[in-house]
Give the backbone structure.
Amino acid sequence: MKSIITTALLCAAAVSANAAWSTNLWEQSTDTVKYTYTQDSQVQLVPNNGGLIFHETDGSSREVQVHTDPKVIVDFTKDARYELSYRIRVIGSTNNGSFPYCNLSLVTDKNDASILFGNSNNTPCQIGIIPQRDVTTSSQMESLTAVSSGTLVYSTNWKSGALSEGFYTYKIIFETFADNSINDKIYFGVSKDGGETAYQTIVNSSHLGLGGHTSKVFDDIGFHLNGADFTSDTITTEGFGGIKLFSTGSTYTVYSRTAEEIKQPEPNVPEPSAFGLLAGLGAIALAVSRRRRSR
């Protein structure tokens, strides 16, 4: 496992989950199949920074990198649901072109594909799919601001412009299927405490360049931060914004998923009414009477 990924964590205040996130967000049940989810494990996504519960940006020319727990893996060969959720706080101005960012990076065990998730200079929530590339070979490549050509980038429909100061929860969910006939799915979104929430659900494993289903395993996962240095907990230098990322409130959760076919109800056949029975008997009697006369 490589060890070059970054993250900024946040102070203990305001770590409550945003009510905008539903507990059954983007589950797969349909009219014909009901999926049952069982939580198998949960670990802290972002490690503590020594005695601190957050990492923070350290100046525009000094990227901050933090690797996640080795247990944090996204395995597309399994029937599973992987939820990666992290909390950030944006502090300072973000309006002068030096927009701070905090990106989650995922690289495969074979170093042949990468995923970036987070914010770029001018967009609050994006995902970048980088086929046949290990983004950790260069710190610049771990930024959605400077993605290489050929990268597929998808955004949410966030309507409030650039990130303003405040607390945000980012969430990315991978629905993986062992059955090669089912497309693996990737969902992501961002929610500001007390404010707007935006999601995106159009991405699937075909965007990794391998068709609708993939057997890739992402085992090199962590964060990359860039932004202003902090002179105190809430004051930044250099005239632009910085980011802190919580260890508290940032989680990696794995669910197993079982499918149960929903039996469709038998079509209703109306029971014969008394009038219908009498009419039927009358018709039979009339037919018998006519037959006797014809003889």
Summary: The chain is about 5% helix and 40% strand.
